[in-house]
Amino acid sequence: MQSKKPPVCDYEGSDYQRTFWDEGERTYEDRVEAIALGRLLPKSGRLLLDIGAGAGRNAPRYGGFERVVLLDYARSQLRLAQERLGRGEGRYIFVAGDAYCLPFAPAQFDAITMIRTLHHMAEPRLVLTQVRQVLRDGAIFILEYPNKRNLKAILRYILRRQGWNPFTEEPIEFARLNFDFHPRAVRLWLEECGFAVERSLTVSHFRLGWLKRAVPSSVLVALDALLQWSGDWGQFSPSVFVRARALGTMPPALDLPCSEKLLFRCPQCGHFPLEEQATTLLCKACSRAYPIHDGIYDFRESFP
């Protein structure tokens, strides 16, 4: 099942949570993203997957869900999430793995979020296909993506301060494994992968350093909250949140629609479910074993 995959942006060992969020003057961005997430996310559910969860910044916002799976490629970020959230007596499940090959059996999740993660994906359609496979039919996918066609980029293009065109649909890689996407392209990818877009919210309209220093954060947040509703008519903000519904039929992992256990799938051969042992997850089809380190299911390594 596993073949050559696109490159991965690895935050292993990064102090991103501290430098960008905790000490990076991002209160405005964090609050407006929380508003958008609250407007789009279902109020309750059984099982939610957060792809690119990092240190668990958004996990407390999933209070209506019985269990939350935090997936990130960086083990160090998941350890930070454990420190922030605790083990949660089973409510939080920590998984180190690759979004290009999700290690979960099909049709399990009632909701999936992917916030500030797609911008690191060189092959976004591949990731979106994986998301659809593990979502239940009719389930909700909340996607955030950086908008190539934002007002700042348009103005810079008009003034000839940048070479790339914000109106064309191809992604722009402004730094290695950092992409901006055009709203039409993202909508098309979602539709191709089996989703129907139900709502779009424009977010972070005032993401300018001088403006955040000059105007109280509470004022900017209130204005942004009003402008978010314009997202269904046009998207010109730096960030866009999308609520999409999974269409079609995806065969369930097992004939147990409310299985209490999270069912894992082998990234190497695709077999599921894996057998959970004391310190490993075992694939009986290819004999691969995936370690469980300090409460983290680790699919970045395996051994025969």
User: How many domain regions?
Assistant: 1
User: Which band does the percent of strand residues land in?
Assistant: 15-25%
Q: Which homologous superfamily in CATH is the superfamily?
A: Vaccinia Virus protein VP39
CATH C-level label: Alpha Beta
The percent of residues in helical segments reads 25-40%
Report the major sheet: 11 strands, mixed
CATH topology name: Rossmann fold
Unreliable spans: none
Trace the largest sheet across and list its strands. 8-9-5-4-1-2-3-13-12-11-10
Distance between the termini: 16 Å
Please name the CATH architecture.
3-Layer(aba) Sandwich
Please report the total strand number as a whole number.
13
* Overall shape: globular
The total count of helices amounts to 8
Q: SSE string, helix = H, strand = E?
A: HHEEHEEHEHEEHEHHEEEEE
Derived structural class: alpha/beta
Could you describe the 3D structure shown?
The longest helix is centred in the N-terminal third of the chain and has 14 residues. This protein has one domain: 3-Layer(aba) Sandwich (Rossmann fold). Strand 11 and strand 12 form a beta hairpin. 26% of the residues lie in helices and 25% in strands. With 304 residues, it is α/β, with parallel strands linked by helices. Strands 8-9-5-4-1-2-3-13-12-11-10 form an 11-stranded mixed sheet, sandwiched between helices. Helix 2 packs parallel to helix 8.
